[in-house]
Amino acid sequence: MKSSVAVLPPFLVLDQLLQNWLLEDIGRGDRTTQSLLSQNTTIGQAKWVAKAPGIIAGLPVAARVFELLNPKVGFVAVKFEGAKCEPGEVVAEINGALDALLMGERVALNLAMRLSGIATLTNIYVEKIADLPAQLVDTRKTTPGLRILEKYATALGGAINHRMGLDDAVMIKDNHIVAAGGIGQAIIRVRSQIPYPLTIEVETESLVQVQEALEHQADIIMLDNMPLEMMGEAVQLIRKQDSRVKIEASGNVTLETIHAVAETGIDYISSSAPITQSRWLDLSMRMD
Predict the structure, then answer these.
(1) Angle between helices 98-128 and 59-69 (to 10 degrees)
(2) Catalytic site residue 99?
(3) What SS3 state is found at 30?
(4) pTM for the predicted model, two decimal places
(5) Known catalytic membership, residue 151
(6) Is 91 exposed, middle or buried (0-12, 13-18, 19+ CB in 10 A)?
(7) Is the peptide bond before 197 cis (omega within 30 degrees of 0)?
(8) pLDDT class for 4, splitting at 50, 70, 90?
(9) Cα–Cα distance between 71 and 79 in angstroms, integer?
(10) Catalytic residue among 31, 72, 141, 279, which?
């Protein structure tokens, strides 16, 4: 796996999200659990078991879900974040107040299964280009409210995070170009407004647009939905004129095409597929 850094945000950032998701599920109270058990009196143990092969992600988040319900719950990750698992393997062990384990089960599992599914598919894409210098990056096509965690999962799978939001960097896309009256005008106007050291990326669909982006010193040039032959020509054009410019390929990247795209010599391949097309990794909690 190529090097990537997956940094989980501090719980100062995540706790409000987790609390809201717990409130959504628990509502006015867990009718089943609270009818059967007295609060914090019955101690139980459980194991999380993988039911499919994949990459594990989200265990620290799951642990925090239980901790918010009861600080004394113990959550031991048997698998490291980003590790591979096989069906039947124990992923985590949990012990503590049984009411907290049962009330937190669904939220914690849902998050871990969603993030593990993303990490798993991301890793499949990354492995497809492991023999080439190009690196996979994610996109802003994320689930509202889950972006910060979904991008954490792609990094665990071996990808690199693209901008987290609109304030991270400038990306001049096709509609911006139309609104500004051309790539050159868009870059000039943006450069006069943005703070240092934000970078400027421009989306291009033709060699003419690539040339215009080069003339106005874009930092990153995206080759969007270009045929492979044109993409190769664009890469040569950019490398010849300005070696500092980074090149990104995007648009309809699949597991079948990603290697050929990487062979053109680009630096980055952006794809929403690891997030938008991933399936949840099936995990289950089994009480001892």
Answers:
(1) 160
(2) no
(3) coil
(4) 0.96
(5) no
(6) buried
(7) yes
(8) low
(9) 22
(10) 141
